[in-house]
Amino acid sequence: KLTPAFSGNLDHDFKGAEIVVYRKQDDAAARSAVAWDDQNLYAAWDVTDNTPWVNGATEAAQMYIGGDTVDLQLGTDPKGDKNRGEAVLGDLRLSIGNFQGKPTAVLYRKVAQNRKPKVFSSGVVKEYSMDFVDVIAEAQVKATVREKKGYVVEAAIPLAALGLKPEDGLALRGDIGVTHGDPAGARTRLRTYWNNQHSGIVDDAVFELQMEPKNWGEMTFK
Questions:
Q1: Three-state secondary structure string covering 60-85
Q2: pLDDT per residue over 35-49, tens digit each?
Q3: Residue 218 in this model has a pLDDT that exceeds 90
Q4: What are the φ/ψ torsions at residue 215 (nearest 5 degrees)?
Q5: Tens of pLDDT, residues 128-141
Q6: Phi-psi region of 8 (alpha: psi -120 to 50; beta: other; left: phi over 0)
Q7: I need a labelling partner for 183 at 20 to 30 A (CA). Which of 27, 65, 88, 206 fits?
Q8: How confident is the model at residue 186 (pLDDT cuts 50, 70, 90)?
Q9: What is this structure's pTM?
């Protein structure tokens, strides 16, 4: 539990939080940390990338297939079945990217009581509906780019927007990761997560969007 000030230095800003390291390639390695206070959930990503923070999506909801993004997935119901193959009520995905020059956070819920639905399609799945997809206008996001080396993204997301009520000892299932795009930023070419290793599929807008809670890890709030 802490309230970080965003300086672009993950180790300094999130000092005391556990930092996880994950990679599929040395030139696409990532480090992440998560923290919380009474108002916000905070997350940070330090990403190695020789074409950093480029995303060519023409719609915010499509950034996850349009190049570089950072990603947080969370099941906010502690009683949820940890082996569930599909997202249920309380499960969410937060995707943050550089949308037309502005760091933008998009929230996805497969099942939601507050509905703002959107249908996605791919060559394999013609219709995949999500109950809620929208930009979190209240999110505070800072992106610090290291030319030809990588970038750091730090985000503060209001707990109310996530439907999250953290407390000491709360354990939830979730995951954190990044996507890397091609040099032109036209398409995502690599997906890397802390816990989910079933992330090799690209070129399919539905499979790249779906949450797989059974492949998440455990996050404990302290």
A1: HHHHHHCECEEEEEEECCCCCCCCCC
A2: 999 999 999 999 999
A3: yes
A4: -100, 10
A5: 999 999 999 999 99
A6: left
A7: 206
A8: confident
A9: 0.96
Closest to 220 measured CA to CA, from 3, 10, 17:
17
d(CA 159, CA 89): 16
Q: Helix or strand or coil: residue 27?
A: helix
Report how many helices (DSSP H) and strands (DSSP E) the chain contains, helices first: 2, 14
Q: Residues 24-42, buried b or exposed e (16+ Cβ, 10 A)? A: beeebbbbbbbbbeeebbb
Instruction: Name the residue among 27, 14, 179, 17 with its Cα closest to residue 94.
Output: 179
Q: What are phi and psi of 183, to 5 degrees?
A: -55, -30
Pairing of strands 102-109, 118-120: unpaired
Residue 218: count of CB within 10 angstroms of its CB:
10
CB of 177 within 8 A of CB of 66?
A: no
